[in-house]
Amino acid sequence: MEFSEEELRHVEKLSRLEISDELRDKLKKQLAEIIEFVNKLKSIDVEGLSSKYSVTMEKQYLRRDEPDETLSRDDVLASAPESSDGFFKVPPVIEGEEL
């Protein structure tokens, strides 16, 4: 499968990364290989296998999901770069929605 320049521009925009001209061809090739690998995984017959299957066949020891102590809102917001009215303040991620 080939990864087009248009698709790479779309990924570049979504990830908010600027990809240099030197890396464009290499990245397109790598992304195409990743997609090809994922498509191969999709073709594997997993009928009858448990979703909790482990390749090591070892028992998975999971802890109980029980409530525990949590940080206060003030403690959490104290480590945030920006906050406002008790919430994290983040830049808009959809174009045209400036605050």
Looking at how many chains there are and whether they match, the oligomeric state comes to: single chain
- pLDDT averaged over residues: 87
Could you say which structural class the secondary elements and strand pairing correspond to?
Answer: mainly alpha
The SSE string, one letter per element, is: HHHEE
Note poorly predicted spans.
none
User: Number of DSSP strands?
Assistant: 2
**Sheet with the most strands?**
2 strands, antiparallel
Strand content: under 5%
End-to-end distance, in Å?
41 Å
Q: Using the CA coordinates, give the radius of gyration.
A: 22 Å
Strand order of the largest sheet: 1-2
Shape: flat
Helix content: 25-40%
Tally of alpha and pi helices: 3
Overview of this protein structure:
With 99 residues, the protein is mostly helical. The protein has a domain at 5-42. 39% of the residues lie in helices and 4% in strands. The protein contains three helices and two strands. The protein has helices at residues 5-15, 21-42, 73-78, and strands at 83-84, 87-88. It has a two-stranded antiparallel ribbon with strand order 1-2. Strand 1 and strand 2 form a beta hairpin. The radius of gyration is 22 Å and the shape is flat. The model has no long low-confidence stretch (mean pLDDT 87).
Mind sketching the topology for me?
Elements: H1 5-15, H2 21-42, H3 73-78, E1 83-84, E2 87-88
Antiparallel strand pairs: 1-2
Features:
mainly alpha, 3 helices, 99 residues, two-stranded antiparallel sheet, flat
